[in-house]
């Protein structure tokens, strides 16, 4: 028996070594991709694409090798001799392995080919401003996604299995409830805001000089607790966070001199993602216990910092005077409360990525309904422009003037990422629920935030969320932290309070 | 017969695919290393090291796989159906493959372990300023290098096989001739310079503001023909050139505000390396025909630009007025000829990397004699401090005040790079011979340089040197371009003319 234990331990080490090697390759891909978005000279793109493909192929071969499968099965059989975290790692890796093994090579090749086509069709459609250019290839993609659901198998709705790629445990039953709450509870709030006179935010669009913006962003990142010795910020077209290990987690931002908010909330948002990655266990590098729980939980971290903290009055009580000192010409005569109102302006609009934190969820809901409908045949790609525009009319009260500002605005479908969008809203709702728990569990939190001190909050997030990796699903984690599953009421309460105050409802 | 041809073509494509995949991994390693030297946050170093090791292991496994060996052997048997370049690629890849296959795994492991030890011993020895800390591990390294020579086999001197790692075809017979020329022909020149009053270079060490230096460096790189859409310059502690494909060749530099020359000649030197890499055939990516000929030829390109062009009066006739405009406070009253003298000052000194283009070769000669002597038993690591210091006394007339400024100054031996140093001198001598040929073959070259136009020169280098890759050895290439093998007389003529003029000999 002792011998079995020792042999299990040895095999577990072999498993760790293999997973770390695969992680090394995936992280190398991440470095190559980061470079692609930040510093790559233009002519380098073609060979860079080829280099990333080669590494991806190798990582895939290693992770789908029969050798790894046999090792995982044998460790799974001996799981009683492993500790809890190790046993969970084996369960998750075996799950990942079996899922990967289900895909026939022909399907993988077809999906890869179609994704490439689809992306280029989307680019061209946007150039021409015409959804019809995208539609035939999108139809092929949807057919493949239906096929993928069949290959992987599913319970209930075929969309569930795609959702689970991003958010394990999520399903249409849960999301129907959530987005029904959005519709029934947020719509009246939105309608009453629409009755009120709009707040002034013109001063946010004066000229905010580039270098001073940059310095302010770095100052915010440092204040949040982002470890600059284990990360860095650079400029890219679209802000993102990437991680090569918990000791090297990088963020990017962009600066628009006529839009103060653009860089500021990108820094705080990406900073939230980065704090999560910096908080993962370095000892678990390459293992499920060292990976983020899910996209929804990842997004909960970015949104908690961006919205619950970064758009709060308490946050700016500390940082606004600093900002006024940096930009006295723009903000010297603007009162804190007017600044606070401006950065929280609610106004239905066309573009998801520019939406405020209230109307944002209607944008997501539209995409959720469409994806679900495409998967079960309620909707067809041919009708998407109309479906899209009608939804926007009904819920956001806006008329979509062009496909580029409508059904063509997001890249996700062209990548075959169906099931991704809902995690954005889940992130906000988890964030509200987590932040409520933090406020209850951390006495004096508001006072700390007012004095620019986020140590306790970050410590709590590290302890409650970051360090667990994939050891719990998002549902499990939520119950563990807050004592109940995801409940929309926390977000509703937060939004009602905040916007009630701002708009005097 | 037609079938054989077609099957050979097919196998050649398989070979190309495998080599490209290996190149993709090696280039990914290069990206990770570039990042390590330029942007890596300090805590990221440990995981980065591990990631590079993982990729190196995979590249090594792929290149030493039995499958590749069989493929290469079969293509080598059918070489008569391949075109010249393809046949040469197979010859070279098979040579590389067989050489790799000679190393027993135990030797590779021992060498890797000792290299690691040796590097750390060197770091520690430098900290303590004491060669004795380094000596015992260096002795182990030398023993391993002797063993390596036996494993690989050699003709004549055991050092030859190590030289061939960097410069195929080089041997002690050739280098003894070359360095004998250095001793017999350059020593009298150096001695007569030492009799002359020294030129003034104090103005090169006034304050040269960082950003203006940077802009000047970029301007020089562009003037040389470095394609900024297929490369970029960044800052690192030690300047270097790295290539991820001919479409993405990057250089780095460093800026010392009190040493104008530091950045300027690093830009021109690395620019010369980079032009070579940008001139390699992208169609031959991953194949020997797409790789640099040798280190000596690589260095010939950097030194031709750095010295024959970049330290010439003609070059500065064009660029000096620009420089004076950038730094009027330092150079406004300095005449071109005085500037030219200052940047060509000859003065025996302690540190190789800071040496002028004449005394430099004595530094290399010392290392060559020591390496050769260590390999054949003439010298022993225990005596190196004394041997080193005596050489410096005899040839450079300087007294070495400390090991750090003496026998511990270079990193190469700690890496196990024996046979590398001579390529530096070979580079200068090839450069002089090539540049003489260019002057003969390109009418009006001097006038073009005087007007800042390097198009014809770069075109000639592309055609004569860059595009051939490893299809010729350095000897073959030299004969092809200049009609004779490497001949020291071209460098001697160049140096005698130039320094005779500067010092009025």
Oligomeric category? homodimer
Strand content of chain A: under 5%
Annotation, overall tally of beta strands of chain A:
3
Main β-sheet of chain A: number of strands, strand sense, barrel status? 3 strands, mixed
Low-pLDDT residue intervals, each spanning 5 or more residues of chain A: none
- Greatest contact between two chains: A-B, 39 and 39 residues
The whole-number mean of residue pLDDT values of chain A reads 96
Verbal overview:
- 2 copies of one chain form a homodimer.
- Chain A has 505 residues and is mainly α.
- Chain A has a domain at 2-102.
- Chain A contains 21 helices and 3 strands.
- Chain A has helices at 2-38, 45-63, 66-77, 84-102, 105-128, 131-152, 159-166, 172-195, 210-224, 260-279, 295-309, 313-326, 328-331, 336-342, 360-376, 384-396, 422-441, 445-450, 455-464, 474-482, 489-503; strands at 233-235, 241-245, 248-253.
- In chain A, strands 1-3-2 form a 3-stranded mixed β-sheet, with helices on both faces.
- In chain A, a hairpin with a 2-residue loop joins strand 2 (241-245) and strand 3 (248-253).
- In chain A, helix 3 packs antiparallel against helix 4.
- Chain A binds chain B through residues 20-21, 24-25, 27-28, 31-32, 35, 39-44, 46-48, 50-51, 53-55, 57-58, 227-232, 234, 244-245, 247-248, 250, 282, 285, and chain B through 20-21, 24-25, 27-28, 31-32, 35, 39-44, 46-48, 50-51, 53-55, 57-58, 227-232, 234, 244-245, 247-248, 250, 282, 285.
